[in-house]
Amino acid sequence: MGKPDIKEVNPDTGGGLVLIRTALCDLLNIEYPIIQGGMAWVATAELAAAVSNAGGLGIIGSGAAPPDWLREQLRLAKKLTNKPFGVNVMLRSPYVDEIMEILQAEPVAVVTTGAGNPGKYVLSLRRLGTKVIPVVSSVALAKRLIRSGVDALIAEGMESGGHIGEISTMALVPQVVDAVDIPVIAAGGVYDGRGLIATLSLGAVGVQMGTRFICATECTVHPKVKEAVMKSKDRDTAVSGASTGHPVRALRNKLTRQYEEMEKNNITSEEIEKIGVGSLRRAMVEGDVAYGTVMSGQVCAMVHREQPACEIIQDVVKHAVEVLANLNSKVVKKI
Ligand code: TUI
After folding, report:
1. Looking at ligand 1, which atom is closest to the CA of residue 246?
2. CB 29 within 8 Å of CB 109
3. 237-240/206-209 β-pairing
4. How far apart are the C-alpha atoms of 88 and 75, rounded to whole Å?
5. 322: alpha, beta or left, given left = phi > 0 and alpha = psi -120 to 50?
6. Of 90, 99, 147, 156, which is best to mutate to test ligand 1, by the most ligand atoms within 8 angstroms of its C-beta?
7. How far is the CA of 135 from the centre of ligand 1 (A)?
8. CB count, 10 Å around CB of 13?
9. Where in the chain are all domains bearing CATH 3.20.20.70?
């Protein structure tokens, strides 16, 4: 892709707002180049609608939830917003085919995918006008997944929460940008305007942010999860399950220490995977932040308070404009 297309716009609607627009805004018909991570058990219709109403792209995280849950969430989101929103499909879900059938019957603007190759679903989704945007964590995956004709990619660095790859955002994004000729969205380690401008500099057309939205007012996650994220410091996430081939980043707690102990003692992958079953729901819905999996990215340490989604988006955009302006005075030296 070429240079990111950053325009400062004074909208006709007034209000003196300064916007940052990129090619992603035109692709997805949104105001700001910010999409919300499709966090399972966290990204419900309430959060997705709030992010979309604020001018970003809200996403319902369908995770491993049953199809009826998604049907209800789609109906609720459509009541709460008239703006485009998306659904994240976790391709290792036992319900993946049923989830895709729902998305055929009740199309959404965007489908992002994680944890697999969406290849066999791409054509039928695109026929409905749904944009398909898989998440990738390596260049090899990016090259494989673009063969099915997807609309864009999300290059997700290992700073992210949840199921991650091995490469950091700083190293991954420019390599994916150079390897493909479709738009690339950056994810992992993005919290504010600095992250947005940094990733645009790497060639991305926008960002996906997950962790910051956990503490959005509209996010229905258990309050103990928000509290744990807000208390966390820079070294408070851990990556567990690397030996199973499915490493997951989450807040350090009794469960991540149990993983560590089991991996040290060379316990089999099957036994290790067993302690993870149901642990995400246990944390995010039931509030068990000690023995549940509190998936969170490394930027958790920067989240200090609960804020409405529209305030989060406005903060990021205003900060990005400032960062961009200051960069000029910082680096241009008159001789
Ligand atoms: O998917 C994520 N993050 C997630 S998914 C999740 S829920 C979960 N439940 C059970 C087991 C594991 C996770 C929590 N967090 N991020 C996007 C992502 N996708 N990162 C890496 C990948 C990925 C991995 C393999 C994408 C494609 C892929 O393809 C393999 C293939 O089939 O070619």
Report:
1. 12
2. yes
3. unpaired
4. 16
5. alpha
6. 90
7. 8
8. 6
9. 5-220+307-331
Specify the ligand 1 atom closest to the Cα of 134.
26
The response to whether residue 90 sits with its C-beta less than 6 Å from ligand 1 reads: yes
Ligand 1 centre from 162 Cα, in Å?
A: 8
Angle at 302 between CA 279 and CA 159, to 5 degrees: 55
Residues 104 and 70 sit within 8 Å (Cβ to Cβ): no
Closest Cα to atom 13 of ligand 1: 163
Per residue of the chain (335 residues), what is the pLDDT tens digit? 443 444 444 443 344 555 899 999 999 999 999 999 999 999 999 999 999 999 999 999 999 999 999 999 999 999 999 999 999 999 999 999 999 999 999 999 999 999 999 999 999 999 999 999 999 999 999 999 999 999 999 999 999 999 999 999 999 999 999 999 999 999 999 999 999 999 999 999 999 999 999 999 999 999 999 999 999 999 999 999 998 999 999 999 999 999 999 999 989 999 998 999 999 999 999 999 999 999 999 999 999 999 999 999 999 999 999 999 999 888 866 66
Q: What is the CATH number of domain 5-220+307-331?
A: 3.20.20.70
The pick from 60, 135, 150, 164 for probing ligand 1's pocket by mutation, whose C-beta has the most ligand atoms within 8 angstroms, reads: 135
Q: Give yes or no for a contact between 56 and 32, defined as CB atoms under 8 angstroms apart.
A: yes
Query: Rg for the chain (alpha carbons), in Å?
Result: 19
**Exposure string over 90-109, b if 16+ CB within 10 A, otherwise e:** bbebebbeebbebbeeeebb
Among 95, 120, 154, 163, the mutation site with the greatest number of ligand 1 atoms within 8 A of its Cβ is 163
